[in-house]
């Protein structure tokens, strides 16, 4: 992805831009109220930064590039579905669209906003999620997923959190009931490898599975509305 200053934003900058369409929350960002409680200064600084980036001109009027950013953020806000894969947040136009909108959380808690073609998304995921490139074991041809025994489940619970664990969240903000135990509204999967076995944990349903590589890929690709065939990799 091309990195430029204009597509890197603080949380307050994004909320200031989202105020153009009265958005009080954006998926993947901290609560806006945290920054509102800090008074006017964070918002004044955010406005000044947006002027320096050319989003607003020196008179405070929106520029053409600023309008494009707000339009992208507007589409992000009104997405019917969000998918989070580690620090990558995906929003969608319609299901058949050839592009997705990505909000990327950086190490210093700033954010980058992109519109990206789906083939490039697959390349990006292949680079950012090493488990996608995992070579499946021979036995994985014989099953999709199977529940772990209590003994294996307890062993997984003792594993320390590492950068190798993949966090996948699916969120449909307008689906009811809006509770985390409703899988049509919210799902979270943690994916990791242990002793050459692929483990997938459904955190909301508290289910632990040994998964085949195919099932992992299908869960991920279905979430992103991408077609997937077993022998086609990223």
3D structure, described in words:
It is built from 7 helices and 10 strands. With 234 residues, it is α+β, with helices and mostly antiparallel strands. A 10-stranded antiparallel sheet has the order 1-5-4-3-2-7-8-9-10-6, sandwiched between helices.
Give descriptors for this structure:
DUF5081 domain-containing protein; single chain; alpha+beta; EsaE; 234 residues; 7 helices; 2 domains; 23% strand; ten-stranded antiparallel β-sheet
Total strand segments = 10
The order of strands across the largest sheet is 1-5-4-3-2-7-8-9-10-6
Q: Runs with pLDDT <50, length 5+?
A: none
What is the terminal separation in angstroms? 16 Å
Structural class: alpha+beta
Strand content: 15-25%
**How many domains would you count in the coordinates?**
2
If helices are DSSP runs of H or I spanning 4 or more residues, what is the number of helices? 7
Largest sheet at a glance? Answer: 10 strands, antiparallel
Task: Determine the mean pLDDT.
Answer: 92
Radius of gyration (Å): 20 Å
Shape: elongated
Along the chain, the helix and strand elements come as EHHHHEEEEHEHEEEEH
Helix content percent band: 25-40%
